[in-house]
Specification:
alpha/beta, Chitobiase, domain 2, TIM Barrel, Alpha-d-glucuronidase, C-terminal Domain, 3 domains, 8-stranded parallel barrel, 6-stranded mixed sheet, 20 helices, globular, binds 4-O-methyl-beta-D-glucopyranuronic acid
Length: 652
C-alpha cells in the first residue's frame, strides 16, 4: 500500500473542493494554502478564483503584508452566503483552511458571526526519539512501535521528501508547529547532526517549512568534547561557550528559522553540567545564550533522577527527583530556556499524579511533555486512546487559579508515535493519539470526546447515521481506562517486563536500580509517599493537593497505591477492598477488550479492508496480552495475600 492519508483523505476536502475559493495574499504558506485548495478542486470539480471578482463561496485572506509564519490565529465567519477566513500570518491562514476542512459542509451552511481562533500555547511540538544509526538495543527508533524512522535509515537521512511532506501536512492539520528530529539520547552518529551533518537536518527543515513547522535538534551536552576536541564541556568555560556560539551560528546559516536545541543532561547516563560542579541553570543558560541572537530556544529536560539507586534504600524516591533538582533553580533560567517536564513525576505510566514541579516554578518557562508513543500503554499493539488522560492532566488545577495547560507557557510536547509504517503509527487507531495531541495542544481545555469525533469524521467519513462512526468511537473512547484496569492497579505503576516494557512482570523492576517499586508483601501493597511516614513526596504539592494526597482517606482511589502502602483489606471510596478491586478490574478489563474486539469485527465492510484486517489482527494480540496481565497480576496478589476472590473466579 502507499502511505495512508490518515485524517486527510481526499474525501475530507469534498466541501471545499466542490466550491469556488479565492485565496488572497502571497508567500510560501499562502502558496501551500493555494495548492491544497487547488488539489481539492481537482478532486471535486471546484474552482480556485484569481483576481478581483467576487464570485466565490470561500475567501481565505492574508491580511498582513507579509506571510510571516508566526501569526497563528485566524478569524472565521459566514455571512451572506460566504465563508471567510482571515489571518495576519501564513500559519494562521493554513490553520484556518484546515478549520474549514474539519467543518466540512457545515462551513457552508447558515451564518456564523465572526469568531477568533488562536492557539493557547505558542509551541506545539513532537519529539522524535529517532536514531540516525540503528542502536544495538533500542533500534532505529527508541521506544518506537511504528517501524523505522521517517527521517533516518541505517546511519543516513532517508531523503524522501514526499513522506516527510505528507507528515508535515498531517501535523499542520492538527496544529503542530515544531518537530525535534532525533533522539534525546544522542549517540555518536547523531551528535554530528549539529556540525558536519547539519545539511541533513536542513533538508528536513526545508520540507517541513511550507507547513509551518520549525525544526529542532537534540544535542549532547558533551558536544564541545566529542565534536570540538576541547578538554571540557564546562558551561562556564569561555572556550566551551565560544564553541557553542560558533556551532550555533553555523546551524542558523543552514536553517535560518531553526527552532532550537533539546537536551537530556545528567539523565540515564547522558553527560551534563554536574560533572563540572555546575547547575542545570548554568548548562541551559549557556545554550540559551548561543541561541538567543537568532530567536531560538533550548528545551532542557527535567527528567533527572538517580537511575542507579539501591533498591534496599527506602529513603530515595524517584518521584521526588525532578522537583528536588529544579525547584531551587526557579528564576535562574534565561528567558529562552524552557524547562521540559514530564507530565507525571515518574515516567509516562498509565496513571500518575501530575508532576508537582509544574505548580512550583512560577519564574520559569515550563513545557509539559506527554508520551504519544505507547511505551507503557500497549506499544501500539493495544488500543489505548490517551485523549482522556492528557485532557485530565492539562485541565488539572495544580494551583488554585491555574491548570497545567495554563502553566505550560513554554509549550506542549509529545514524544512522537510515528514511524515509516504505512499507517504511520503501527496500530492504525493510534493515529487518534497523534491527532488528539495536536488538537489539545492548540486548546488544552477542549473536550477530548469532541476531538475524537473530529478524528473519526475526517478519517472514516462523516456521513450522518451510516458508517463506522459509533463503532470506532466505542472501541476507542474508554480504551485508556480499560488498559488501566488490566495492568498495574491504583496508580502503582510499572509491573512491566524489564528492558522492552511490554507485557506483565509484577516483580520485574522490584529489585532493580531504577527506582520503580511497588513493595507488595503478604499484608499490603503501595508506596508510602506521605510526609508523615513516607518519602515526603506528597509534601511537594501546594497545600491543597498536599493535604488531599497525604492521607489514604482523602487520596483519590486511582492514585492510592502511588501515595500509600495499604493493607489488602483497605476499603476504597468505591466500597471495595483493594484486593477485590484488583481482581474485579482485571476481569473487567479483559472482558472490555473482548467486547471491543467484537465491535471491531462487526465493522468489517464499513472500514477499508486493509485497515480492518490490521486492527483485527492486533486485537488478537491485545486479548492474549490482556489475559496474561490479568492472570499474572491476580495470581500474584492471590498468592501474596491468600485472600480468595469473593466471586469465586479462577485464580492460579
Ligand atoms: O521512559 C524512559 C524511556 C527511555 C527514554 C527516557 C527519556 C529516551 O524508557 O527510553 O529515553 O524515558 O524520557 O529520556
Amino acid at each position: 500500500m502507499g502511505i495512508d492519508p490518515a485524517w486527510l483523505p481526499s474525501a475530507a476536502f469534498r466541501a471545499v473542493g466542490s466550491r469556488s475559493t479565492l485565496v488572497r495574499g502571497s508567500g510560501p504558506l499562502v502558496d501551500t494554502v493555494r495548492a491544497e485548495v487547488g488539489a481539492a478542486c481537482r478532486d471535486f470539480g471546484g474552482r480556485v478564483e484569481h483576481g478581483a471578482g467576487d464570485d466565490f463561496d470561500l475567501l481565505l485572506e492574508l491580511t498582513g503584508d507579509t506571510d510571516g509564519t508566526d501569526g497563528e490565529g485566524f478569524t472565521y465567519a459566514r455571512e451572506d452566503g460566504r465563508t471567510t477566513v482571515t489571518a495576519s500570518g501564513g500559519r494562521g491562514l493554513l490553520y484556518g483552511l484546515f478549520h474549514v476542512v474539519r467543518l466540512g459542509e457545515e462551513a457552508f451552511r447558515g451564518s456564523t458571526a465572526r469568531q477568533t481562533h488562536r492557539p493557547a500555547v505558542g509551541l506545539r511540538m513532537l519529539d522524535h526519539w529517532d536514531n540516525v544509526a540503528v542502536h544495538p538495543v533500542m533500534g532505529q527508533v527508541e521506544r518506537g512501535y511504528a517501524g523505522g524512522s521517517l527521517f533516518w535509515r541505517d546511519g543516513r537521512a532517508r531523503g524522501e521528501p514526499e513522506r516527510v511532506r505528507a507528515y508535515g501536512r498531517l501535523l499542520a492539520a492538527c496544529g503542530i508547529n515544531a518537530v525535534a528530529v532525533n533522539n534525546v539520547n544522542v549517540h555518536a552518529t547523531e551528535a554530528r547532526l549539529l556540525t558536519d551533518r547539519i545539511g541533513e537536518v536542513a533538508f528536513l527543515a526545508q520540507v517541513l517549512r511550507p507547513y509551518g513547522i520549525r525544526t529542532h535538534l537534540s544535542v549532547t551536552f558533551a558536544a564541545p568534547i566529542v565534536l570540538g576536541g576541547l578538554p571540557t564541556a564546562d558551561p562556564l568555560d569561555a572556550r566551551v561557550r565560544a564553541w557553542w556560539a560558533a556551532a550555533t551560528a553555523r546551524v542558523y546559516e543552514a536553517i535560518p528559522d531553526f527552532g532550537g536545541y533539546v537536551v537530556k543532561a545528567d539523565s540515564e547516563g547522558q553527560p551534563g553540567p554536574f560533572a563540572y560542579g555546575r547547575s542545570h541553570a548554568d548548562g541551559a543558560n549557556m545554550l540559551a545564550a548561543a541561541l538567543a541572537p537568532y530567536g531560538g530556544s533550548v528545551h532542557w529536560r527535567a527528567f533527572v533522577y538517580d537511575h542507579r539507586q539501591d533498591w534496599r534504600d527506602r529513603s530515595t524516591d524517584r518521584a521526588r527527583a525532578a522537583y528536588d533538582h529544579f525547584v531551587p533553580l526557579d528564576g535562574e533560567f534565561a528567558d529562552n530556556a524552557v524547562l521540559q517536564v514530564k507530565h507525571g513525576p515518574m515516567d509516562f505510566q498509565v496513571r500518575e499524579p501530575v508532576s508537582p514541579l509544574i505548580g512550583a516554578m512560577p519564574r520559569t518557562r515550563l513545557a509539559v511533555e506527554v508520551q504519544a508513543t505507547q511505551e507503557y500503554t500497549g506499544q501500539q499493539r493495544h488500543v489505548c486512546w490517551l485523549g482522556p488522560m492528557w485532557s485530565e492532566v492539562l485541565r488539572f488545577p495544580i494551583q488554585q487559579e491555574s491548570s497545567v495547560g495554563e502553566l505550560a507557557r513554554g509549550g506542549l510536547v509529545a514524544v512522537s508515535n510515528v514511524g515509516d509504517d504505512p499507517y504511520w503509527t503501527g496500530h492504525p487507531l493510534a493515529q487518534a493519539n497523534l491527532y488528539t495531541f495536536g488538537r489539545l495542544a492548540w486548546d488544552p481545555g477542549a473536550d477530548p470526546g469532541a476531538v475524537l469525533d473530529e478524528w473519526i469524521g475526517l478519517t472514516f467519513g462523516r456521513e450522518a447515521g451510516a458508517g463506522p462512526h459509533a463503532g470506532v468511537r466505542s472501541v476507542l473512547d474508554g480504551s485508556w481506562r480499560t488498559y488501566e484496569k488490566y495492568t498495574a492497579p491504583l496508580g502503582v505503576g510499572f509491573m512491566v517486563q524489564p528492558g522492552h516494557h511490554y507485557g506483565p512482570s509484577v516483580d520485574g523492576y522490584e529489585y532493580s536500580p531504577w527506582g520503580t517499586y511497588h513493595f507488595a508483601d503478604r499484608d499490603g501493597v503501595g508506596v508510602d509517599r506521605s510526609v508523615a511516614s513516607g518519602t515526603g513526596f506528597a509534601g511537594q504539592y501546594g497545600k491543597a493537593w498536599a493535604e488531599v494526597y497525604e492521607s489514604p482517606d482523602t487520596c483519590p482511589d486511582e492514585l492510592l497505591l502511588f501515595f500509600h502502602h495499604v493493607p489488602y483489606d483497605h476499603v476504597l471510596k468505591s466500597g471495595k477492598t483493594v484486593i477485590q478491586h484488583i481482581y474485579d478490574t482485571h476481569f473487567e478489563g479483559v472482558a472490555e477488550v473482548e467486547a471491543a474486539r467484537e465491535v471491531w469485527a462487526s465493522l468489517a465492510g464499513a472500514v477499508d479492508p486493509g485497515r480492518h484486517a490490521r486492527v483485527a489482527e492486533l486485537f488478537e494480540e491485545q486479548v492474549r496480552s490482556a489475559r496474561e496481565w490479568r492472570d499474572q497480576i491476580n495470581s500474584y496478589f492471590f498468592r501474596k495475600s491468600g485472600v480468595p476472590d469473593e466471586r469465586g473466579r479462577v485464580l492460579y
